[in-house]
Amino acid sequence: MSFTNINDPAGVKALLDRLRTSQAWQTLVTAQAQTQEQPSTPQPAPSGTETPASSTSVAALLSQLNSAPAPAPPAEHPRQVLVAAPPSPTKQPETPPSPPPPAPYAVTEDVRSLTFQQALPRLAQLSDDPAVVSAIERLKQEQDKVERELWQERTAIRAKYEEKVKVAKTRASLIGTGLSKHEAEMLSQAYEKELKRFDAERVLPAWDGLVTSQQAALQRICVPTMFPTAVKNDRERQQRVIQVLEGIVGLAGGV
């Protein structure tokens, strides 16, 4: 037996259509129409009894309705409970291990105060180091450059006064006299004075700056006795060391 789901509108409509076209429905409709056409004083029917047509139509309707399928209970789905996942713990950045404490600096020997005799073995070792030899050669090249510049400037001063003497002699010859002793002495004194000023204001500062620069550079490459100083005894000791270096590396000149 098939049943029609009453919750299905299409199924219910199809069921009603079948009822309207059934013989029981047509009989019931005909019986009702005949009842309405009878006189207004109908004969009372015996209590507890029904007309055959009514009984037949009701039975047929019940039969048709009973043939309708009962609605299927809704399928029960397991209730899904959403449980929020616990938040994942925030990963803290790993702290890098503390670096080991730096090793104490190695105490280097102070070679500044070595005597000349104590410095000789170390100078022999330094002479075998190409980097040291190259550094000393660069210092010598810088010194040569400064010396050339100072010499050119001094030569220019001398040429200026030579030109003044030449002009004075030419002027004296034009008037039939020679260069007077007084004029010659004046030119000579002016020349000497300018040279002294040049030495004091130009040569000595340039030379002192060069010496200090060389002392610091030689100290950085661990040449014994070398450090910036203006003390006479220290400078004399340094000069002896430079003379040894000149002989070892084939240089000329020095601090």
UniProtKB/TrEMBL annotation:
Residues 86-104 have a biased composition (Pro residues). InterPro entries: DUF2458 (IPR018858). Residues 29-59, 84-106 are annotated as: Disordered. This is Uncharacterized protein.
